[in-house]
UniProtKB/TrEMBL annotation:
Positions of the ATP phosphoribosyltransferase catalytic domain: 52-209
The protein's name: ATP phosphoribosyltransferase
GO molecular function: ATP phosphoribosyltransferase activity
EC number(s) on file: 2.4.2.17
Domain notes: Lacks the C-terminal regulatory region which is replaced by HisZ.
Role: Catalyzes the condensation of ATP and 5-phosphoribose 1-diphosphate to form N'-(5'-phosphoribosyl)-ATP (PR-ATP). Has a crucial role in the pathway because the rate of histidine biosynthesis seems to be controlled primarily by regulation of HisG enzymatic activity.
Cellular compartment(s): Cytoplasm
Keywords per UniProt: Amino-acid biosynthesis, ATP-binding, Cytoplasm, Glycosyltransferase, Histidine biosynthesis, Nucleotide-binding, Transferase
Pathway given in the UniProt record: Amino-acid biosynthesis; L-histidine biosynthesis; L-histidine from 5-phospho-alpha-D-ribose 1-diphosphate: step 1/9
Length: 211
């Protein structure tokens, strides 16, 4: 893509999209076309490609995008990705928690009675590491979304999921039992682009730091 920045930038759709586009606007990349096209994915004139946050490391690792924006939770869940993490952007702050139905803790109860607790999550790698480190036996059930439903139906004893305002947990009668990590949005780069397009990437990072 031949654009003003000379870079192809992977922008996450969903929760991180608004703040990411606001930031790009502030450093002089006009994202109005992205905002006004809900279904369009590739914006050649400004060098932006949009995708789910968990796909950003895939595109950046392969060099299909030079740089990208995604959550720290996504990066921790995909530790094998060969990408450089350049900056903590501060926004998109949320916490990965262990949560279960309010009242006596069903997770702790299952551990006590059966020696194992069943946990639903999209974050199986982070969760596996967390329970290993804290010496607990768990059976992980991978779900793709609406994780809060799993303990309400008896599928599991607890969940590992992101929370920000706490509304979704509350609306579903769940409470936080433990905090696992806090995530914010990060800027990542393709290692080869980081060398070959160093000037363009450095310039962009400098402008982001000035914000
Ligand atoms: N309140 C929030 N809830 C969930 N994620 C948030 C929140 N605030 C910021 N984030 C960030 O946004 C990312 C998820 O965005 P969103 O929920 O829109 O995507 P998704 O469709 O669930 O993505 P994917 O399927 O790729 O995991 C998280 O990885 C996290 O870094
Ligand atoms: O604490 P809150 O402010 O309520 O935000 C947390 C909720 O937002 C995210 O869900 P999302 O809307 O991305 O849907 P998903 O569960 O399908 O990923 C996350 O998985 C929680 O469900």
């Amino acid at each position: 893509m031949s654009t003003k920045t000379g870079l192809t930038i992977a922008v996450p759709r969903g929760a991180l999209m608004g703040d990411t586009l606001d930031l790009l606007d502030r450093i002089g990349i006009d994202t109005s076309e992205v905002r006004s096209n809900d279904r369009k994915l590739l914006f050649e004139d400004i060098g932006i490609v949009t995708m789910r946050p968990s796909d950003v490391p895939t595109y950046v690792e392969a060099g299909a995008a030079d740089i990208g924006f995604t959550g720290k939770d996504v990066l921790l869940e995909q530790p094998e990705r060969a990408v450089y993490e350049l900056m903590d952007l501060g926004y998109g702050r949320c916490t990965l928690v262990l949560a279960s139905v309010a009242g006596p803790d069903p997770g702790a109860e299952a551990l006590r009675r059966l020696g194992v607790m069943r946990v639903a999550t999209k974050y199986t790698k982070i969760a596996r590491r967390f329970f290993e480190e804290t010496g607990r036996q768990v059976e992980l059930v991978e779900v793709k979304g609406s994780v809060e439903l799993a303990p309400l139906t008896g599928l599991v004893d607890a969940i590992v999921d992101l929370t920000a305002t706490g509304t979704t947990l509350r609306e579903n009668g769940l409470v936080v039992r433990e905090e696992i990590l806090v995530a914010t949005a990060r800027l990542i780069a393709n290692p080869v682009a980081h060398k070959l397009k160093a000037a363009a990437i450095d310039d962009l990072v400098e402008r982001l730091r000035a914000e």
